[in-house]
């Protein structure tokens, strides 16, 4: 019996991860109905783990459930929700910078520099128009990795879990805004300011640079979403 429960949980988690990946990749437009039977056929599972996964996904805000109509993809974030998302990021990421232990702080510049370098390489390829969609995803992955490196350096699993939940909404937001390549240079310059402050050992300067960066990303996101 215990083995059966464990197998059921494993299948539910596998289905949840598969649906989450499809949602954040923009597989379905906002408002699209998510038929349980169709999803079960697509993932080659029974309807039960699909239903359980959708219940979990509803708690993330990625899907919505209405009586008699089932589940559908949630609408894009509005200006108020975008502001709340960035308020949460600001609290979390500034807290993370404060929480990085001194030993991890000294090792942090190497990781941050690697991610900034990867961002720069991918941004250069975007400018050249090479494999635009793939390169854009690679650029955004390097951007996320920069921030994740700071969370990882805290050594606090709960901060990392919170960041993961917020990150889901950040990924979702990326599906609904126009990505402007000209912003890449701004974001990279802002990351470099954070990096240089960390390299110098000036935690207050790093906090200031991160505040400026997140304010800039917020402004650009609202503009691209037509909310600014």
Automatic annotation (TrEMBL):
The keyword Chaperone does not apply. Pfam families: FCD (PF07729), GntR (PF00392). Keywords: DNA-binding, Transcription, Transcription regulation. Residues 9-76 form the HTH gntR-type domain. It comes from the Bacteria. InterPro entries: GntR_C, TF_FadR/GntR_C, Tscrpt_reg_HTH_GntR, WH-like_DNA-bd_sf, WH_DNA-bd_sf. PROSITE patterns: HTH_GNTR. GO terms for molecular function: DNA binding; DNA-binding transcription factor activity. This is GntR family transcriptional regulator. It comes from Ruania alkalisoli. The lineage of its organism: Bacteria, Bacillati, Actinomycetota, Actinomycetes, Micrococcales.
């Amino acid at each position: 019996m215990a083995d059966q429960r464990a197998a059921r949980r494993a299948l539910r988690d596998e289905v949840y991860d598969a649906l989450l990946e499809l949602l954040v990749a923009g597989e379905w437009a906002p408002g699209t109905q998510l038929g349980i039977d169709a999803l079960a056929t697509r993932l080659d599972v029974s309807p039960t783990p699909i239903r359980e996964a959708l219940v979990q996904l509803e708690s993330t805000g990625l899907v919505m459930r209405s009586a008699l109509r089932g589940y559908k993809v949630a609408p894009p974030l509005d200006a108020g929700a975008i502001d709340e998302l960035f308020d949460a990021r600001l609290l979390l990421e500034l807290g993370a910078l404060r929480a990085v232990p001194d030993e991890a702080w000294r090792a942090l510049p190497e990781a941050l520099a690697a991610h900034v370098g990867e961002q720069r390489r991918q941004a250069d390829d975007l400018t050249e128009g090479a494999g635009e969609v793939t390169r854009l995803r690679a650029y955004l992955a390097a951007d996320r990795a920069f921030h994740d490196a700071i969370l990882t350096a805290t050594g606090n699993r709960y901060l990392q879990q919170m960041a993961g939940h917020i990150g889901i909404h950040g990924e979702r937001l990326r599906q609904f805004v126009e990505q402007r390549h000209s912003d890449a240079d701004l974001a990279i310059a802002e990351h470099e300011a954070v990096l240089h402050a960390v390299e110098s050992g000036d935690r207050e300067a790093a906090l200031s640079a991160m505040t400026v960066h997140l304010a800039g990303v917020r402004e650009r996101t609202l503009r691209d979403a037509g909310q600014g």
